[in-house]
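Researcher: Here's the sequence for the chain we discussed earlier.
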Amino acid sequence: MRRGALHIVYQPIVDHAATALFGWEALARPVLHGTTLRPDVWFRAAHQCGSAARADALSLILAVTHLSAFPREVRAKPLFVNVLPSSLTDEAYVQVLETVARQLTGGLSEQLVVEIVEYVDYDPAALREAVRRLRALGVRIALDDVGTDHASLKAFTLLRPEFVKLDRSLIQGLSAAPARRQGLAEWVRQVQAVSVVIAEGVETRQDLTAVRETGITLSQGYYWSPPVAPDGRAYIAVEIEIKRHALFETVRRRAGCLTHPDVIRTSQELDSLILRYYRG
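Model: Thanks. This is the structure I predict for it:
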């Protein structure tokens, strides 16, 4: 399994309540003979071949290594790295993870968030000791693609993750589904007693507004940015989209008054970011 077999891109996780970058999810893009493969298919195949831990270790190492291409202030943000459940009980993978966690940002291992993906079925009870070991290092846990089904609720109850990432099927079209929005808000209130909730798959301003109304403060999706390559210019592009949303919200709060000082200041900040982007 070669390093060239995986490319790493990063998708921002945004604190839409504060209109600020919260963190990144590192996404592995498997490549075979120049063709990009579906990550779920590739990692599932690795699991079936007994190579899941090697695949996850490679993904982790690359995710942390390429993060250095971002500006210093960005590198200190939480980094979500996907992992198959079976890898968390594999000693070779755990040793790699422990080494990486100790090296991150001068020992700030809490920057690292292990995001358990559901590419394969698993018993969350079998992961409790592995999760305890990671937490002893300061590493935090996230559950990916969480829904309201029994399996998701069982994993949430047994593992008590620091972060819960809602399945995009619960988010997309939320603005046009008031009953679903009300039910989700009630569910979020219960979950937030234990975990921070992140809405995945946010693609429209209308759905972002609906997400905010449920009490969720963190979101991720193409509304903010597609996954980007690890470089400073790509980061500025992400900041532009966040600031563009901040300007929209500021105008809305100021009843459309374009001459209000808050609107002018936010507009100037956006202009400055755009200039930085085009100047390279």
